[in-house]
Amino acid sequence: MNTFSVVLAILSAIRQNHVTAILDLVSHLECSLVHRDMDLKHCITWRPIAIRVALTLVLILPATWAPAQDAKQQAIQSTKLKNVAMCNGEDHTAAGPQVSGCTALIESGLENQQTLVIAYLNRGDALIGQGKYDLAIKDFEESIKINPTYFKTYNNRGVAYSKKGEFDRAIADFDTAIRINPEYAAAFANRAETYEKKGDYVRALKDFDEAIRLRPTLAGVWNERCWTRAIVGELQTALTDCNEALRLEPNVAATLDSRGITYLKLGQWALAVADFNSALQSDPKIPSSLYGRGFAKMKMGDVTGGNADIAAAKAIEQNIVSDFKRYGLN
Q1: I want to staple 46 with a disulfide (CB 3.0 to 4.6 A). Which of 41, 50, 170, 207 is the partner?
Q2: What is the reported pLDDT for 60?
Q3: Residue 233 in contact with residue 264, Cβ under 8 Å?
């Protein structure tokens, strides 16, 4: 049962004044509230590193919480529960409602410090989703003021800086997150992607290695290491990584794209086309898959088809040709 479902059940119990049921549901809520670690996405193919960690933090309700006895108090509690659900984003709403829910908690003046740390953090995450990186950074800074030792806030601020192109500041935040918690795989993975964006593939691979050691079931990290290994020419180990990523999470477009790039560098044109076709079935506007497929078609003698794919890729991503040259494909 997710947080949103629990909230609905609690609201129903409140209306019926079922005290025991309410307390049981609150106990469940304590264990199901979550904060999502932010991840970076590759600037060309948007590869997600899907890391989620459930927190045993209660945004609103202590374990001894009891239902209100009058309609006004019940209405207040109902509103607070709804704000918790929105702030958590557990009902998969857009970023706007999540920002609203967190803002209501922050501005209520009723929440404890632990609650505010997560509310600012979650609102910052939602603002990143809206592309409002400076506002997100301000929220992360507020969270850090309250709790300067919470490693996830530094990780997420690092993501905001990286998305702004401020790579050195991003790396400094990932460094801090790792210093506080050396077992935090998300920070290693995000720092690796930032090094990758800077073209520092040696450091990127080292961090991907550590992220995989810590969390070997994260398919997105296997995919990113595949991509990086393909770029530096470690093609057989790149294939191994992509295959492991697809074993963990089959039919992911980003991983199929990575493996397609690897096949391109191996000169295996038909296998590359097959992977790009599969990737484009999921997302027909991945520029690297379009360009890669066009590149392979040209090598196979299909000039018309190749030119069409390359033109489509250029229309989406104007730097795609220089990107592929940087990958050693020209």
Answers
A1: 41
A2: 41
A3: no
* Pairwise CA distance, residues 184 & 254, whole Å: 24
Asked if 194 and 170 count as a contact pair (C-beta separation under 8 A), the reply is yes
pTM for this prediction:
0.79
Task: Count CA atoms closer than 13 A to 232's CA, side-chain side.
Answer: 16
Tokens of 144: 């850090």
Q: How many CB atoms lie within 10 A of CB 214?
A: 17
pLDDT attached to residue 80: 81
Q: Which residue has the tokens 């300067």?
A: 148
Token pair for residue 63? 């374990």
DSSP 127: H
Tokens of 232: 């530096």
Asked if the model's pLDDT at residue 196 lies above 90, the reply is yes
Cβ(297)–Cβ(308) below 8 Å: no
Looking up tokens 């020419």 gives 233
- Length of the chain counted residue by residue: 330
Of 218, 297, 311, 315, residue with least CA distance to 260: 297
Phi, psi of 34 (to 5 degrees): -130, 155
Structure tokens given for 270 = 């038909």
Q: How far apart are CA 57 and CA 46, in angstroms?
A: 31
Q: How many CB atoms lie within 10 A of CB 93?
A: 16
Give yes or no for a contact between 105 and 129, defined as CB atoms under 8 angstroms apart. Answer: no
Q: What amino acid is encoded at 293 in this protein?
A: R
